[in-house]
Design brief:
With about 230 residues, this protein is an all-alpha fold. The protein contains nine helices and no strands. It is elongated and about 60 Å long. InterPro entries: Homeodomain-like_sf, HTH-type_TetR-like_transc_reg, HTH_TetR, MT1864/Rv1816-like_C, Tet_transcr_reg_TetR-rel_C_sf.
Length: about 230
């Protein structure tokens, strides 16, 4: 199979990649309508007008297809969060932090099937990415923002009571281009899990609030967490 970042050089490779994308696009449409439990390669083959066995050269099993869809969704989410932070001035650490967490909620609420694939029960993985990879990567982005704020004196996270209480020795995600202290990563993880919990309830229809009340609740929760970390109230 052609790797994600590899440019296909031959007609056969281009055709292969186009078929992979067609399968995934149909699968995403079916996920929205039916959910992951009933998604099948047989149904996708029927939609494409081919025999089911023709698809197994692209995805050996239902699990491989779901994993590919989950990886695509994770990449989309991480890029959405990254871009939200990138448009804020690099010196506005509070603004970047708030924008990133708002972007996380926005992405989840508009991509619930992709969210569910990444944050539902962890299936057996067929790639080198462990089930917690997406969590490490999203928290890594947030931790980088907090580390920048700590480094320029906006925050003092190394002596923060939250960091002192919950700091754990973690393997810092390798994609970060700045060093992140384990205490800073732990604070970012604690804040993100609080936000993730309420967003998960909202995405699955279990948050007992109207849409408007859910918006207000999220903003109040975000403001409280941001203040607790040490950013000035705005």
């Amino acid at each position: 199979m052609t790797r994600r970042n590899e440019v296909p050089r031959t007609r056969v490779q281009r055709r292969h990649l186009a078929t992979v994308e067609e399968v995934k696009e149909i699968a995403r449409e079916r996920l929205v309508r039916e959910g992951a439990a009933t998604l099948s390669l047989r149904a996708i083959a029927r939609d494409m007008g081919v025999v089911p066995s023709a698809l197994y050269r692209y995805f050996p099993s239902h699990a491989h297809l779901l994993e590919a869809l989950a990886d695509d969704a994770a990449t989309s989410m991480l890029e959405h969060v990254r871009m939200a932070g990138a448009v804020v001035p690099s010196t506005d650490h509070r603004g970047r932090w708030v924008a990133q967490l708002r972007a996380y909620r926005t992405w989840v609420m508009s991509h619930v099937p992709g969210y569910t694939l990444n944050f539902g029960p962890a299936p057996e993985r067929h790639t080198e990415h462990p089930p917690d990879d997406v969590v490490r990567r999203i928290v890594g982005q947030l931790a980088r923002t907090l580390q920048d704020a700590n480094d320029d004196g906006t925050l003092d996270l190394l002596n923060h009571p939250i960091g002192e209480a919950i700091a754990v020795q973690v393997e810092i995600p390798g994609m970060l281009d700045v060093e992140v202290d384990p205490k800073v990563f732990s604070i970012a993880l604690a804040a993100w899990t609080a936000i993730h919990g309420s967003v998960a309830l909202e995405a699955t229809g279990r948050l007992p609030l109207s849409d408007k009340a859910a918006d207000d609740y999220f903003e109040a929760q975000l403001a409280g967490l941001t203040l607790a970390i040490g950013f000035d109230h705005q």
